[in-house]
Amino acid sequence: MSVPLLEAENVTMRFGGVAAVQDVNLKLEEVELRCLIGPNGAGKSTFFKILTGQLRPTEGVVRFRGQDITGAHPHVIARLGVGIKTQVPNVFNGLTVREGIGIAAGRKKSLRHARQIVDETMELLQLSPIADRMVGQLAHGQRQWVEIATVLAQEPDLILLDEPAAGMTHEEVLRTAELIREINKKQALVVVEHDMQFIRMIAKTVTVFNRGKILIENQVEAVLADPGVRDVYLGKQAH
C-alpha cells in the first residue's frame, strides 16, 4: 500500500459544544485533484483551515506523506511541499508582478533557478504582459492569478485553494478552470469551492460536506446526480 500524499484521520473540530467538523476521514493521492463542496456552515472551510495549519483539530490526525502535521504552523507545512492560497488575495501590493513571484521563487532556489521559475510561471499563467505592473493596481482576477503564481513558484507537491473563482467574471472563471486543469498535470490540488459551474469544469472526485460530516464522496457526475446532495446543497442549480 502506498502512503497517501495527504491524509486526514478521524478529524473533529469543536467550538464550545458545537462540532463544526465531526469524524472526517479523507485521503488524497499524488497528483490528484479533489474538490470540497457543501452549503454554508457545512464544515468545509473549517476543515480547510485544519489542513493548512490555521486550526488545530480537537481530535484526529492530519498527515502529509505519512508525517504528522496536525496543528503545525502554516510555514512549516509550506516547507514540506504544501502551497496554500486563501480566499483573500495575499500579495505584495507595492511590488511588480515579476518581483512578487520572484520573492516566492527565491525562498528555496538560487537566483538563476528562481529567474527561470518566474519566467515559466508567468508564461503558464499568462502574466508576462503585466509582469512590470504593480500588483496593487491590478483587477481582482489578475490579483488572484498572481497569488496562485506565487504559490506555484515555490514548486509545491500539493496546492490548497480556497474559493479560487470567487468574485471573478465568467471569462476569468473559464481561464482559472483551464489553469487548474493544467496545474493538475504535475501537482495535486484540494479546491474548496461553492460555485457549481466551476466545479463542473474542473472536478473529478468531489467530497461533499454537510453538518460537519462527509455526506458523499464520488465522481463529479455521480455527486451532481445524487438526490441527497441536491436536497442539502444544489437545489435548482443541479437541474
Describe the model.
- The longest helix has 14 residues, at 111-124.
- The strands form two sheets. A six-stranded mixed sheet has the order 6-7-8-3-9-10, with helices on both faces. A four-stranded antiparallel sheet has the order 2-1-4-5, with helices on one face.
- The model has no long low-confidence stretch (mean pLDDT 92).
- By secondary structure, it is of the alpha/beta class.
- Helix content is 36%, strand content 26%.
- It has nine helices and ten strands.
- Helix 3 (97-105) runs parallel beside helix 5 (140-152).
Main features:
alpha/beta; six-stranded mixed sheet; 26% strand; globular
Shape estimate: globular
Strand order of the largest sheet: 6-7-8-3-9-10
Question: Averaging pLDDT over every residue, what do you get?
Answer: 92
Q: How do the SSEs run, as a string of H and E? A: EEEHEEHEHHHEHEHEEHH
Q: Would you tell me the structural class of the helices and strands? A: alpha/beta
Share of helix among residues? 25-40%
Q: What percent strand?
A: 25-35%
Note the main sheet. Answer: 6 strands, mixed
Report the uncertain regions.
none
Give me the secondary-structure topology:
Layout lengths: L5 E10 L2 E11 L4 E5 L6 H8 L7 E6 L2 E2 L5 H6 L2 E4 L11 H9 L5 H14 L15 H13 L5 E5 L7 H14 L4 E5 L3 H7 L2 E6 L2 E7 H6 L1 H8 L5
